[in-house]
């Protein structure tokens, strides 16, 4: 068994595999090590919907990426365009008045090239007809700047990237957890590892790329760094992202970077398992998400609305609203819909294991909800219904301006009275996907020391990179960020090892 490599990549998610592929393209010997077994590999990537946000100017930019460019629906599809200016505005909307960070500028500038590069590695994409478009006047209208997802969603992405890496001659070792970095003479020289049986060892390398996620699966770190109550959050993805890579880098003096109090969260079925479950088929793994709140109202245990459900397209609100649910009493809320919108709810609302209650009247529905102030809930819905302006047409393909009037907390778009039975209520909580705080990296993906110099031989990508997101993010940016910074880290590590060998 080979014991010395040019590059060891820690992790096997999208960012890790992007780094590994980029390094192999440069002819370097690359080993990927993964804490999980092969069946549970893929990091958080395997749990995602596979959507990627990137700059494009129209249909012609998207067609080369598609698995089926002959899909007959394409002839009546309006993808629109998603410019660098729109991407900039979307990111700034979550920055709490911060200017674009260097990392965000890189994400925008390299997003399309990164996705084209990924497609060149055999990863194919499909239009997200079921979740990102509505049919209007016989045409599919895409909204929110997000159009494509990888074939077979995140699980398919993880599989395709592993296949591409294998085709390039790369090797992956599973059940191989990184425990610490090995250094010599101020340079990273390898990684200490341990398998599930407790057997320890050292793998020598000229460079190490840390791509093993944030700290979202570590309840203690969530409480300490994000805040009280976050220890109770459901973890949408892998249980293995315990902050190990961040801890290893910090022990070498790496510079903390980004917003450690921030995270990507999303509304989830209240009865979601504590961690994601890759044992389920990929179509079942996604059913716990509940992100159609924009079609109804959300009430907390006090029976009150607590967010403007129609503030923006759900691509731009679900990460923040997942956090908002965590801040409610008991970390719980109810999404309430009437029959007018039932056909518009995503498939996870109709999944056989989706939890909800149903009744022919609002009174009967609210009476079935445990732990809610029933009188206040009915009063809240009555006030909401009275405030809806019916003169504005409802149109889910645009921010339609159909709003409430006179409420302290408005609903700014897609407001319809909750009045047509039968009615449904879905109990939800907050599920955490990934954290925002990490380490600082340079233009080559090298991890920066607190003294302002790169740590020789140490690189990072994916959730490890701080400064990409702050108080939320536009949906689909996370996977794109993984490719952008993974590709950089892999190429940077390859260039470093080439110089070291000269």
Automatic annotation (TrEMBL):
Cofactor(s) for this protein?
A: FAD
Write down the Pfam families for this protein, in alphabetical order: FAD_binding_2
* Keywords, sorted A to Z: FAD, Flavoprotein, Oxidoreductase
* Presence of the UniProt keyword DNA-binding in the record: no
Where would one find coiled-coil regions in this protein?
A: none
Q: Enumerate the GO terms in the molecular function aspect.
A: oxidoreductase activity
Indicate whether Oxidoreductase appears among the record's keywords.
Answer: yes
**Residues in FAD-dependent oxidoreductase 2 FAD-binding domain copies:** 6-477
What the entry lists under InterPro entries is as follows:
FAD-dep_OxRdtase_2_FAD-bd (IPR003953), FAD-oxidoreductase_2 (IPR050315), FAD/NAD-bd_sf (IPR036188), Succ_DH/fumarate_Rdtase_cat_sf (IPR027477)
Which NCBIfam families does this entry report, sorted A to Z? Answer: PRK08274.1
Q: Which PANTHER family match?
A: FAD-DEPENDENT OXIDOREDUCTASE 2 FAD BINDING DOMAIN-CONTAINING PROTEIN, FUMARATE REDUCTASE
Descriptive protein name = Fumarate reductase/succinate dehydrogenase flavoprotein domain protein
- Organism of provenance: Methylobacterium nodulans (strain LMG 21967 / CNCM I-2342 / ORS 2060)
């Amino acid at each position: 068994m080979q014991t010395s490599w040019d590059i060891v990549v820690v992790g096997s998610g999208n960012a890790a595999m992007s780094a590994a592929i980029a390094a192999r393209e440069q002819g370097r010997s690359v080993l990927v090590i993964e804490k999980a077994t092969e069946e549970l590999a893929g990091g958080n990537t395997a749990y995602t919907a596979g959507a990627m946000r990137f700059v494009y100017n129209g249909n012609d930019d998207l067609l080369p990426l598609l698995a089926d460019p002959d899909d007959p629906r394409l002839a009546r599809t309006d993808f629109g365009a998603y410019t660098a200016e729109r991407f900039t505005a979307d990111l700034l909307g979550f920055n709490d008045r911060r200017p674009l960070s260097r990392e965000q500028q890189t994400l925008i500038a390299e997003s399309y090239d990164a996705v084209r590069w990924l497609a060149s590695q055999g990863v194919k994409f499909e239009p997200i007809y079921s979740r990102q478009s509505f049919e209007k006047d016989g045409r599919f209208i895409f909204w929110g700047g997000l159009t494509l997802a990888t074939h077979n969603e995140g699980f398919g992405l993880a599989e395709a990237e592993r296949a591409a890496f294998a085709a390039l001659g790369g090797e992956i070792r599973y059940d191989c957890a990184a425990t610490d970095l090995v250094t010599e003479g101020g340079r990273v020289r390898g990684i200490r590892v341990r398998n599930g049986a407790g057997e320890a060892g050292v793998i020598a390398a000229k460079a190490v790329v840390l791509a093993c996620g944030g700290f979202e699966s570590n309840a203690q770190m969530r409480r300490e760094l994000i805040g009280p109550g976050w220890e109770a959050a459901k973890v949408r993805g892998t249980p293995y992202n315990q902050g190990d890579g961040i801890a290893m880098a910090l022990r070498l003096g790496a510079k903390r970077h980004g917003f450690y109090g921030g995270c990507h969260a999303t509304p989830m079925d209240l009865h979601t398992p504590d961690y994601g479950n890759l044992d389920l088929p990929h179509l079942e793994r996604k059913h716990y998400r509940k992100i159609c709140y924009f079609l109804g109202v959300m009430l907390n245990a006090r029976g009150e609305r607590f967010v403007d459900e129609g503030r923006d397209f759900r691509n731009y609100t679900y990460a923040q609203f997942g956090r908002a649910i965590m801040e409610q009493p008991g970390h719980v809320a109810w999404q309430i819909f009437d029959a007018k919108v039932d056909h518009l709810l995503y498939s996870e609302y109709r999944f056989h294991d989706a939890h909800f209650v149903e009744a022919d009247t609002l009174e009967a529905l609210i009476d079935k909800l445990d732990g809610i102030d029933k009188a206040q809930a009915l009063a809240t819905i009555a006030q909401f219904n009275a405030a809806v302006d019916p003169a504005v047409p409802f149109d889910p393909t645009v921010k339609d301006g159909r709003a409430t009037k006179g409420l302290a907390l408005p609903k700014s778009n897609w407001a319809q009275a909750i009045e047509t039975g039968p009615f449904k209520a879905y109990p939800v909580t907050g599920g955490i996907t990934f954290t925002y705080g990490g380490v600082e990296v340079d233009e080559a993906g090298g991890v920066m020391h607190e003294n302002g110099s790169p740590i020789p031989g140490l690189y990072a990508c994916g959730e490890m990179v701080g400064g990409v997101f702050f108080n939320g993010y536009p949906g689909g940016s996370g996977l794109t960020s993984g490719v952008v910074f993974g590709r950089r880290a892999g190429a940077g590590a390859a260039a470093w090892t080439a110089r070291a060998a000269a």
